[in-house]
Design brief:
This protein is of the alpha+beta class and about 500 residues long. The protein has helices spanning about 50, 60-65, 75-90, 95-125, 140-145, 145-165, 185-215, 220-225, 270, 290-295, 300-305, 315-325, 335-355, 410, 415-430, 435-445; strands at about 10-15, 25-30, 35-45, 175, 180, 230-235, 250, 260-265, 270-275, 285, 295-300, 375-385, 385-395, 400-405, 465-470, 475-480, 490. It has 2 domains: about 10-45 and about 415-490, no CATH class; about 50-410, Orthogonal Bundle (Cytochrome-c3 Hydrogenase, chain B). About 40% of the residues lie in helices and about 20% in strands. Helix 5 packs across helix 6 (about 145-165), helix 11 packs across helix 13 (about 335-355) and helix 15 runs antiparallel to helix 16. The chain starts with 9 loop residues before the first strand and ends with a strand.
Length: about 500
């Protein structure tokens, strides 16, 4: 007598995920007891930058690739510049160029972290995941917490002004060029930024304290929502301190033990391998030595807090120790706390760089070597707001790019986001009727990583949403709709 066949699985889809950059959907497969058997984040758009960069002159690349993103274009701009520096054999970037590039980068960290926390995530954290959907946006935040909303806008504006003065424009500037930069900072602009530093640092400290208080008030939520053990990957400087602009690759296991330390970024392919799945356009990186099942990892602010030995700025380091006082912080929502610590660190670094007289004068570009390198290939790695970003180029004798490989931050976090979705679905779905608040729990887990699904532009939550619950035979059991204005209802 044959065994009874397994009962059919039911499928729930969230399409699209809102208040993230780009377009993606989540699918859950449930058994007869409504236990989650499968949870997947699907990236349903395709971007071909690695292909259409090929054949372009190398000097165009730092400007072209930043079109990947409207929120963190500086990361792509600088990672590409650093890769081209190596490919051209540039021996050393002048101090002025180093200072300007670093100032540009930390300004971008400021503005990106501010827009993610204040505009996209704080409504969920302050109003609640199940709160009225029409309030969960920046307009609702401004009505309920006007001072906080103003601070968020001002912090982002300051970061954008740093970018404008160093890159030439707030978005998609041209300040970094192969071998250096193309401008100095004027004394008046430097002094104008410096005058705002004390207020910006104070507001950053308040933002860190806000998130810390949220954790303290609801430890059950903030310590367990989307919590799971993972490896961590980032760059650190050669002493092991946090450095968001340059360094060597380091990886730790969930217990904090070093898996990799001091790895040369030029040899990242010896460390990292990518695999594909037929249900998504986004790849799955992992540590080659551990394989895809044990070698996946998380990147971004929380990974950087775990991976470094210290944050080289006193206020942020004190807050990092507070974050990790009870051991590794594995919960997904801890990303927000780490992100605000990094925003504070970025302001402390900006304050220090503004004291560097190299900003105001000195050589802008390093000379090209007298002898062309035999192998014109280079890797540029930087810590983007969302995590480790890798750009890799090869240049032919005709100065045209012959090969390109990009591993963006959200790609590194692909497996982790899928794990977070599964963890939250396992904990909260539990056979409940589909509701907008329940859907938002799953989206909150994705949003915590500040994902750039297309590495394009932030969406502010106005996307329409339709979710169907169907049985194995395709029969419709339930349908819920959310229109572009955020109104939620059931289909008749």
């Amino acid at each position: 007598m044959s065994a009874n066949p397994a009962p059919p699985l039911r499928r729930v889809a969230i399409d699209p995920v809102s208040r993230v950059e780009g377009h993606g959907k989540v699918t859950l497969l449930l058994d007869a007891q409504d236990r989650v058997q499968q949870a997947r984040l699907h990236i349903v758009e395709f971007r071909g930058f690695e292909s259409f960069i090929v054949g372009r002159p190398y000097w165009e690349v730092p400007v072209m690739v930043q079109r990947l993103c409207g929120i963190c274009p500086v990361s792509h701009h600088l990672a590409a510049s650093k890769a081209i520096d190596v490919a051209l054999g540039v021996a050393g970037i002048p101090p002025t160029a180093q200072a300007m590039r670093r100032l540009m980068h930390y300004g971008q960290i400021m503005q990106s972290h501010a827009v993610h926390f204040f505009h996209l995530s704080s409504p969920d954290l302050l109003f609640g995941f199940d709160s009225e959907v029409t309030r969960r946006n920046i307009v609702g935040l401004a009505a309920a917490f006007p001072d906080l909303a103003r601070q968020g806008v001002a912090l982002r504006k300051f970061g954008q002004e740093v970018i404008r003065l160093t890159a030439g424009k707030r978005v998609h500037g041209t300040g970094s060029v192969p071998g250096g930069v193309n401008r100095h900072l004027t004394a008046a602009d430097r002094d104008g930024l410096a005058a705002q530093v004390p207020q910006m640092i104070a507001w950053c400290e308040q933002a860190v304290e806000l998130v810390a208080q949220l954790h303290a008030k609801d430890r059950e939520l903030y310590d367990h929502f989307g919590s799971f053990a993972s490896n961590w990957l980032s760059i650190v400087d050669r002493s092991g301190a946090l450095d968001l602009y340059d360094g060597v690759l380091r990886a730790r296991d969930p217990a904090g033990r070093l898996l990799v330390d001091g790895a040369d970024v030029q040899q990242y392919l010896d460390l990292i391998e990518e695999r594909t799945e037929p249900w998504t356009y986004m790849k799955f990186p992992h540590l080659r030595a551990l394989g895809p099942d044990a070698g996946w990892y998380r990147v971004g602010p929380l990974a950087r807090m775990h991976n470094c030995d210290l944050v080289p700025s006193p206020r942020a380091e004190a807050q990092r120790q507070r974050l990790l006082a009870d051991g590794p912080a594995q919960a997904t929502l801890a990303y927000h706390w780490a992100r605000m610590i990094e925003m504070l660190h970025a302001m402390e670094v900006i304050a220090d760089i503004l004291d560097d007289e190299a900003l105001l004068g000195g050589d802008l570009v390093a000379p090209l070597p007298g002898q062309r390198p035999s192998l014109r290939e280079g890797v540029g790695v930087i810590e983007a707001p969302r995590g480790t970003l890798i750009h890799h180029y090869a240049i032919g004798d005709d100065d045209l790019v012959t090969w390109c490989n990009l591993i963006v931050s959200t790609t590194h976090n692909n497996r982790a986001m899928n794990e977070s979705i599964r963890s939250v679905a396992d904990r909260y779905f539990d056979g409940r009727a589909i509701s907008e608040g329940l859907l938002n729990h799953i989206e909150v887990a994705v949003r915590a990583y500040d994902p750039c699904l297309s590495c394009a532009t932030h969406a502010l939550g106005s996307m329409p949403l339709e979710v169907d619950l169907v049985d194995a035979s395709g029969g419709l059991r339930d349908r819920v709709l959310r229109d572009g204005d955020g109104h939620f209802g059931r289909a008749a």
